[in-house]
Amino acid sequence: MYTEENARGRFPLRDILLKAIVVIIFLILIIFIITKITTPNSNVNKTDSNYDKVFSKNLETMENVAYEYYTADRLPKEIGDVNELTLREMINTNLLEAFTDANGKACDVNKSYIRLTKNDDDYTLRVSLKCDEKEDYTLTKVGEYDYCEHDICKKDPTKETEEETSKEASDEVKITEPTNDTSGNISNNTSSGNSNTNTNNNGNTNNQGSQSEIVQTTPQVMYEYRKVNNPVLSGWSSWSSWNYNNDRYSAIKCSDTDVNCLREVQLYSRREKVGTDDTGKAVYATVNYYSYRTRTLISSGSIDVKWSYYNDTNLLNEGYTYTGNTK
Asked: Smallest Cα–Cα separation from 58: which of 115, 98, 103?
């Protein structure tokens, strides 16, 4: 009897404990689920940030390789010329070691490249990188400067010589448009401080300069084009009949474009009877013959030079080509 009552008295306490355990487990599950939902966002942000960092580092590595690769003999010569090197070629020639993105995946070695394009006075360097999750490129103006560690580098204004800086400053001319003074007279001021005015007998000041805005323009660069006109020769005449080669002519063969060669000569020899001796016996000897043909020079060759703007399609279509000279 005692045991049964004690057993019945403990049941409510056990039920309460079981319910409390269930509630605690339920709360732990809710907290775990909420944590799983919110935590991945921060991990994604961290992953994206690291991916961009590795991507930028790989772009910088390719750019540094470009400065080492583009030596003087590899620089594009003519304006608009391009020299390109793929990532595969960089790896195969040991210019750099193969790299991967932040996820350990190799980037596209065929669609990733460095490209150098010739401009008027400098070059444009394009570094393009294509990986599994990102594709981007950089454009940089580079040139052949005295302070470059390699044949080309970025332009650094802080390293320009004082002579270049002073020259650029002297080339700048500040021109201001005319302004009205308090007396109603118009004055035209320039950076030189000179006044272009005259005073008449009445003491009035008149402005003899133009009252419109003065615009300074940079002279247009002109490019030299050249076209080579070949000489024009007539066709050959028919070969002449065979003549005795008493003057010992030599054989002459002309090239098709040799304007100084207007006469060809061919030779022929044979044994034939040239007479008889005192006994009446026939005498034979080698007899030489020659034949010739001629042509005339219709017009001499010439070189036609013209100056025009860059990429003049009219001249290019007419057969003119760039010489590389500018003015």
From this structure: 98
Question: 182 is written with which tokens?
Answer: 């308090």
User: How far is CA 274 from each of CA 133, 271, 278, 283, 286, rounded to the nearest angstrom?
Assistant: 98, 9, 14, 6, 9
Element at 291 (helix H, strand E)? strand 282-294
Whether pLDDT at 242 is above 90: yes
pLDDT at site 266: 94
DSSP state letters, 110-144: TT-EEEEEE-SSSEEEEEEEE-SS-EEEEEEEEE-
Beta carbons within 10 angstroms of residue 138's beta carbon: 14
Between 214 and 19, residue with greater pLDDT: 19
CB atoms within 10 A of CB 286: 9
∠ CA(83), CA(86), CA(90), 5° rounding? 105
The encoded tokens of residue 128 equal 């393009």
User: By three-state DSSP, how is residue 54 classified?
Assistant: helix
**How much is the average pLDDT of 295-318?**
85
In angstroms, rounded to a whole number, what is the distance separating the alpha carbons of residues 49 and 55? 10
DSSP conformation class of 256: T
Residues sharing a CB contact under 8 Å with residue 121, sequence separation 6 or more, in sequence order: 143
When pLDDT is cut at 50, 70 and 90, the band that residue 4 belongs to is low
Partnered with residue 284 across adjacent β-strands are: 273
Condensed to tens digits (0 to 9), the pLDDT of residues 265-296 reads 999 999 998 888 888 898 888 999 999 999 99
CA–CA gap between residue 60 and residue 301 (Å, rounded): 53
Nearest C-alpha neighbor of 170 from the set 160, 159, 162 = 162
Higher pLDDT, 268 or 35: 268
What separation, in Å, do the N-terminal and C-terminal C-alpha atoms of the chain show? 123
Q: Alpha-carbon distance 178 to 171, whole Å?
A: 22
